[in-house]
Design goal:
5-stranded antiparallel beta sheet; globular; alpha+beta; single chain
């Protein structure tokens, strides 16, 4: 590196004096230099040697001169270009400002007016260049400079010059043109013709990030990002930035269309739409998503369909995997009654099909019960006793459905009847019914086998693999081997296999999750809301070919679950599109009256927790920590990593929040300032053998965290972590017995601990224990204390209960009394979806549409669509035959 710089300095000694390096990018290293002839500071950009070797000097200089004539107030001009001792370089003015990237790294989001102004200035520059026949091809925050309050676009035409000079041989350089987050779909798929509409898309992605604080598509690798750009519709910007004006959101949606023909024809048209308060979205796919997010859900339909009766099949058009799904396979949308929508569980599967393809079963709102529908019938039925169901699977003969519910594996006749308990393990993360009439299930860390008639759950392996952190969503293969979702040490979801003959398991190289066996000889799995087919030998447990994309728009979940199933005998596929059950965050008073929480748009919220002074609310949306300022009615994102963060707990000073995270593939506790400043501070890592480890409460003196530890057998217990020592061990157990003890809540004076003990709420002395009493009636969970400690609250089914407390010496309880009853409190997720806020009101996350006499509005439920594909295995064979 030093030798190269010395060579460069010597080669340019008569023209430029290099002062220092300013930075490095994908194509060039940038130096601050002095132009000796004109006595001015310049930015000297030197192409990377491997790129220069492929391009050649003469062709590069010839192509780059076409951009030198661009003269525009928002375009950084090209001063010079050339070759020196084998180096290819070009020279631009040195701007003493900052890039938009630096600004976003510092502030995350910009004001709406400023973001729109910057975008329109860039669009003005793009329009000028396009009129001169030049497409930028690399619009990104790094190439937008902010100087004197205005935007200037840098590196104009450089990407075009590099591409043209390479003569179509860019792949030889090992580099890619364009930054993945801002690539247009046609760039991502290496289309030969890149038009001005590609720049429109890229600038749309930049504007999206200025408003939302993140690009339209995120992923753990460049490949994942590119696949999302090609296959996924971005979330409407209004979900992440409610203050975005309707015309700006509509213009942004149009700019981000997948097909160039559906975008604005020119940069000028995009700029005009941003400045036109009356602009409305066009009838295109991304625009439809915008329409749905702003409450106009009936204005546009996502597919063209013909309803066969009020609640029958709808024949869908064009539901194919892009251009790769040929053949006449028939596709249908399976619907339930209007009041029974598919309600995706955020961490589990909700969909199954019988082996003969005759019955489809899925979980519906609001009770989370199983709904079964015959494909030759216009009506279905709910199976009584299946409330809270997840991980559905049919028996090989199609007569039974096994499912998990409230920590118990159960089965029910597929046509309805008595529900039978099979085993109790605390939770199920995937089930598979094998041909030997046993059911394989996961409890996160290990796989278990349970007799289909019920009995003892037998662990299938010793959990001693250093490479596999967790095991979820198993599928029994022909021959008895098992393929499943394994979480690697780096936190990624990978396909993994367990060989029953050797008792060993191993990770496969494929990134993805939720593998299912297809009778065509393929493992079908989900990666980034799309299905892939992997040729696979089920006896040797090895892939025999490369995976192929076979179906897009299939619901994928952060846990690795997915909503699709294959009828092995009939060759039918059923899947749910990537719809989402949005939640709303509302206020509920002690009489059950509901009012909206202003400034919190419907989203994917959970774990609401109020600050000690009740002025702020922490909650999780998706996988990120947010805070809500009650006085200002504003929602702010605090964490931005791509892993799952959850279970926030406020510190006693109200300035920091502890939370659990899965980053690095292991459970850890972190601390983050509530104002979002600084970085995450790791508190401690969970010890080995725990499948979950989460903070739940802070002691009044702020010295210790009450935590819930969940071991492999899921018999959770409550422990204490002293923050000064930050060690996790068994020496500080607070509550541990044969029950699952969870959800600890300390009284304001710190002397009494309420917690879930199995299916009831108990209270005992803290920290010494003793004087243990049952607070709730026959059932109760999620205890809370009033600020003065005189009332304890808990949830019992669909009811919020209150108990008066007297704690003078001994503890005595009054009779539990009903505050209010509401169906939507049955969230079925095992999470506490409420907390006690200011003025005695509860802050509640609504997981389903409110019912009863609550008087609440809708919760923003956007259900997925259940699609049935007949002769899907025939279609799959045709797809694979072309590869």
């Amino acid at each position: 590196m030093a030798d190269a710089l010395a060579r460069l300095t010597a080669a340019l000694v008569d023209r430029y004096r290099i002062e220092r390096e300013l930075g490095q990018g994908g194509m060039a290293t940038v130096y601050l230099a002095e132009d000796l002839k004109h006595k001015r500071k310049v930015a000297l950009k030197v192409l990377r040697p491997e790129l220069a070797a492929v391009l050649g000097a003469e062709r590069f200089v010839q192509e780059i001169t076409t951009t030198a004539a661009l003269q525009h107030p928002h375009i950084l001009p090209l001063f010079d270009s050339g070759t020196a001792d084998g180096f290819l370089y070009y020279v631009m003015p040195f701007i003493d400002g900052e890039t938009l990237r630096a600004r976003l790294d510092r502030e995350t989001q910009l004001g709406v007016d400023e973001a729109v102004r910057i975008a329109r200035e860039v669009l003005d520059a793009l329009q000028y260049a396009h009129e001169h026949g030049i497409v930028h091809r690399d619009v990104k925050p790094e190439n937008i400079l902010l100087h004197g309050g205005h935007a200037m676009v840098a590196d104009f035409g450089i990407a075009l010059a590099v591409s043209a000079a390479a003569g179509g041989r860019m792949t030889e350089t090992g580099l890619s043109l364009g930054t993945p987050h801002y690539m247009s779909p046609e760039q991502a798929t290496a289309e030969k013709e890149i038009t001005a509409r590609s720049d429109v898309y890229s600038l749309g992605s930049v504007l999206y990030e200025m408003l939302a604080g993140q690009p339209p598509h995120l992923g753990g690798s460049a490949q994942q990002i590119i696949m999302k750009i090609v296959t996924e519709v971005p979330r409407p910007v209004t979900e992440l930035r409610k203050a975005t004006p309707p015309n700006v959101a509509a213009a942004l949606a149009t700019a981000l269309e997948k097909l160039p023909a559906d975008r604005f024809e020119t940069a000028k048209a995009f700029a005009e739409a941003l400045g036109n308060s009356t602009f409305l979205p066009a009838h295109t796919s991304v625009a439809r998503s915008y329409v749905a997010s702003t409450g106009w859900r009936r204005a546009l339909l996502p597919i063209v369909a013909i309803a066969a009766g009020g609640a029958g099949f709808m024949i869908a058009t064009a539901l194919r995997a892009g251009d790769t799904a040929p053949g006449p396979s028939a596709r249908f949308i399976v619907t339930a009654a209007p009041a029974l929508a598919l309600l995706p569980n955020p961490s589990n599967s909700d969909l199954a099909i019988s082996p003969d393809g005759h019955l489809v079963a899925y979980v519906v709102a609001p009770s989370l019960a199983i709904y079964v529908r015959a494909v030759d019938s216009l009506a279905g039925r709910i199976l009584p006793g299946t409330e809270g169901a997840a991980s559905l699977v049919f028996s090989p003969d199609g007569k039974w459905i096994a499912f998990g519910s409230h920590g118990i594996l159960r089965k029910v006749p597929a046509t309805g009847g008595s529900v039978i308990q099979l085993a109790q393990l605390g939770g199920t993360l995937g089930t598979s019914w094998g041909a030997n009439d046993s059911i394989v299930m996961s409890t996160y860390v290990n796989l278990f086998s349970v007799p289909a008639e019920g009995g003892v759950a037998i662990p299938l392996m010793k959990v001693d693999s250093a490479s596999v952190v967790s095991r979820r969503f198993p599928e029994v293969l022909p021959g008895g081997g098992i393929i499943y979702t394994g979480r690697a040490e780096d936190g990624s979801n990978r396909l993994a296999v367990f060989d029953r003959r050797t008792g060993t398991d191993r990770l496969l190289p494929q990134i993805g999750s939720y593998p299912r066996w297809s009778p065509t000889g393929h493992v079908i799995y989900n990666a980034d809301n799309a299905l892939w087919a992997l040729p696979f030998d089920p006896r040797r447990l090895v892939a025999t070919g490369a995976p192929v994309l076979v179906q897009q728009d299939v619901a994928s979940k952060t846990s690795g679950a997915s909503n699709f199933a294959i009828a092995r005998d009939a060759g039918t596929l059923v899947y749910a599109t990537a719809g989402t059950a949005l939640t709303s965050t509302v206020w509920i008073d002690t009489l059950g009256n509901v009012s909206p929480m202003e400034g919190v748009a419907p989203g994917l919220y959970r774990d609401p927790r109020f600050s000690p002074d009740r002025s702020m609310l922490a909650l999780i949306s998706g996988a990120h920590l947010f805070t809500y300022d009650i006085r200002r009615a504003t929602l702010s994102q605090i964490t931005r990593d791509s892993v799952d963060n959850y279970s926030p707990v406020w510190m006693t000073d109200g300035k920091s929040i502890a939370f659990a995270s899965t980053r690095g593939g292991a459970r850890r506790l972190y601390l983050r300032r509530a104002d979002g400043s600084g970085s995450d501070q790791e508190l401690l890592k969970a010890r080995a053998g725990l499948v979950d480890f989460r903070p739940m409460a802070i002691t009044p003196d702020g010295s210790s965290l009450l935590v819930t530890r969940v071991p492999v057998d899921l018999k959770c217990w409550i422990g204490l972590v002293t923050l000064s020592s930050a060690r996790d061990n068994d020496s500080a157990n607070v509550v541990r017995n044969s029950l699952c003890n969870d959800m600890p809540a300390l009284s304001p004076d710190g002397h009494w601990l309420a917690y879930n003990a199995g299916s009831v709420v108990m209270v005992e002395r803290f920290p010494e224990g003793g004087m243990r009493q049952q607070l709730s009636g026959r059932a109760g969970q999620f205890p809370l204390w009033s600020r003065d400690g005189r009332i304890a609250y808990y949830q019992a089914g669909d009811s919020m209960m209150a108990v008066s407390i007297q704690a003078a010496g001994a503890l005595s309880f009054g009779k539990p009394r009903l505050l209010f009853r509401a169906d939507f409190m049955r969230n079925g997720s095992g999470r506490q979806n409420f907390d006690l806020g200011p003025a005695g009101r509860f802050g509640v996350v609504l997981n389903t549409a409110p019912g009863g006499n609550s008087g609440a509005g809708t919760s923003g439920l956007v259900p997925g669509t259940v699609v049935l594909v007949q002769d899907w295995t025939g279609e799959l064979k045709r797809i694979m035959a072309k590869k």
